[in-house]
Write a structure and sequence with these properties.
The protein is an alpha/beta fold and about 240 residues long. The chain has a single domain, classed as Acetylglutamate kinase-like (Carbamate kinase, 3-Layer(aba) Sandwich). Helices cover about 40% and strands about 20% of the residues. It contains nine helices and ten strands. The strands form two sheets. An eight-stranded mixed β-sheet has the order 3-4-2-1-5-9-10-8, sandwiched between helices. It has a two-stranded antiparallel sheet with strand order 6-7. The protein is globular.
Length: about 240
């Protein structure tokens, strides 16, 4: 049985690229769509925030000399491209979907309006939030935290390539240790890479839990909403005891 009524699923842009590492991989899109449909059919309301790193990464371009604001706006457009790709995949498996970017683009998506987004969720539609927060210098992690708080989500579920948060990179270090539980404050103080510090602080201030888990294995989204998935749960100190 699902433990949550409404979740925000945070996906990286790289998640859509599959093994290619860039662009959009249709079979990977289909798998994600099937996962979200499986979750939706259990009665959970699902909102999604997607990154754009498979197409363009603003911070990387800024590091190479591009104006940071211009680079970030390009990154926002990349997230909208991914949002439309997700929408197409979701609707092919029978999910009613709305894309709401933070930047107005009437020809392809409706503008983000908090009350409208909540109404869509209540009517059983999946809502995809694109274009980050609509502002440069903020990541899609921060957008996920902001939207989750705004729509009253029960939890942010951050799907990654690894099964949780480790004390060091598990791909490089065989002795890396996974955390089962952390507090937001521990994440900030130890500079653990769960979400960026702005997003983590926003979650801490609003008691928004974060679950970091792997999207690799089929059924992990459903297991996550049932509380049965292996991962790392980040909550306030009082909730974590």
């Amino acid at each position: 049985m699902a433990q949550y009524k409404r979740i925000l699923l945070k996906l990286s842009g790289e998640a859509l690229a599959g093994t290619a590492g860039f662009g959009v991989h249709p079979p990977t899109l289909e798998k994600i769509a099937d996962e979200v449909k499986d979750c939706h059919e259990s009665g959970v309301q699902v909102a999604v925030v997607i990154g754009g790193g498979n197409i363009f990464r603003g911070m990387a371009a800024s590091a190479q000399g591009m104006d940071r604001s211009s680079a970030d706006y390009m990154g926002m457009l990349a997230t909208v491209m991914n949002s439309i790709a997700l929408q197409d995949a979701f609707e092919k498996v029978g999910l009613q979907t709305r894309v709401q970017p933070a930047i107005e683009m009437q020809e392809i998506a409706e503008p983000y309006i908090r009350r409208r987004a909540i109404r869509h969720l209540e009517k059983g539609r999946v809502v995809i939030f694109g274009a980050g927060t609509g502002n440069p210098f903020f990541t899609t992690d921060t957008a996920a935290a902001l939207r989750a708080v705004e729509i009253g989500a029960d939890i942010i579920m951050k799907a990654t390539k690894v099964d949780g948060v480790y004390d060091k990179d598990p791909v490089v270090h065989a002795d890396a240790v996974r955390f089962d539980r952390l507090t937001h404050l521990e994440v900030l103080q130890r500079q653990i890479k769960v979400m960026d510090s702005t997003a983590t602080s926003l979650c801490m201030d609003n008691n928004m839990p974060i679950l970091v888990f792997s999207l690799t294995d089929w059924g992990n989204v459903r297991r996550a909403i049932q509380g049965d998935v292996t991962g790392t749960l980040v909550k306030t100190e009082s909730d974590s005891q």
